[in-house]
């Protein structure tokens, strides 16, 4: 038996049913990740106006410990990054800026966790569905050949064989449709979550710049004195 014939027999024997189960599993995992990420992002969001007001109250008087406590109480990405910088306030604005850059990289990693799965599923689920369709078409034409050999020489036999292959192809196309149905929510969620990440990190810059502004003015005041 040639390698091509061996692969064909493998596909004909297995069918495309396992592809449907694979796509269903990918869809379930994707929706689980989407729900978990949405809840995580909701928990790590911030009221930037309230946090800015808190810094305006504490930083002019040099109450860094109180400012850090209020930022941590928010449990937000922006608050965590600003608090990481304020912990090094005694070392000067440069140290604070570096600390906030490190905290931003750390928070970005946490926000982007498991998003690679959504991107991969969104890009490849249609190909998985197409693979199942190809298997189904191979199986349909194999049945067509067997029916044509068994019922050779007759219009009725040709019609039966034609109906059989059309039914097989119709069933095979289901995997392509399911692959697209799995990919669309994953791609949409991936793009939405990436925009949320960009928005949250941009919001964190508001507090970062505010912290650096206060610390820079404080250093200039100390230098003048």
Describe the structure.
The protein is built from eight helices and no strands. The protein has one domain (3-139, 175-219). The termini are far apart. The chain is mostly helical and 225 residues long. α4 (64-74) runs antiparallel to α5.
Brief write-up:
By secondary structure, this protein is mostly helical. It has 8 helices and no strands.
Secondary structure blueprint with pairings:
Layout: H1 3-14, H2 17-44, H3 48-58, H4 64-74, H5 77-86, H6 93-111, H7 115-150, H8 155-224
Helix pairs in contact: 1-7, 2-7, 2-8, 3-4, 3-8, 4-5, 5-6, 5-8, 6-8, 7-8
Keywords:
mainly alpha
> Runs with pLDDT <50, length 5+?
none
Q: Tell me the total number of β-strands.
A: 0
**Binned strand content:** under 5%
Fraction of residues in helices? over 70%
Shape: rod-shaped
How many individual helices?
8
Distance between the ends: 92 Å
Domain count: 1
Q: Quick check: average pLDDT?
A: 85
Radius of gyration: 30 Å
The sequence of SSEs as H and E is HHHHHHHH
Helix and strand composition category? mainly alpha
Main sheet: strands, sense, barrel: none
